[in-house]
Amino acid sequence: MSYAIVGFGAVGQALARAFERQGMEVAVAGTRPPEALAPLAKAIGPSIIPRSLQDALAAEIVILAVPFWAHRDVAKVAASWQGKIVIDATNAFGVSPGDLGDLPSSVVISRALSGARLVKAFNHLPAGVLGADPNAKGGRRVVFLASDDESATTQVAALAEALGFAPVGLGKLAEGGLLVQARGRIWAPLIFQDLVKFR
User: Second label for 165, Cα 20 to 30 Å away, from 15, 41, 134, 192?
Assistant: First the structure.
């Protein structure tokens, strides 16, 4: 399985640290060329490989860690999103529900990435916590997953496990997914909840 993180700000770098901790190779990309990302990638570790955005989007699982509206620009780069698993790690804080057509933000992204199998995950923790060792307090740090595609959820849960996290499913995007999505300037109840699973 091949992986890419699109967006190499605080959240993208936190996720890259999680991959590096497990020695799992991941491509990283953004709006800047690969050589501009190289010093940051090198500082994290050898498993972090800078790529062009187009090359990174060839990965089987793509983690979207860009500012919310930037998903529209990313959507235009791939020739096709059909069947690709996309992990939505964005937060639409400050975006008016009206601007989203009163839809969950992940549904808006899913529609922009036509044919993608989208899973909301890795967005509810602050970057500093997300990038820390998920083995905490004798258990594993929880990451929440929501999707309308059960098979994609299973694969993202396996990735979360491989990275050392404890995945907890919340159901569909328009149901449990709303528990981890900002609405305007209001954070959903599970945002910033740093929970640990002991089994």
Answer: 41
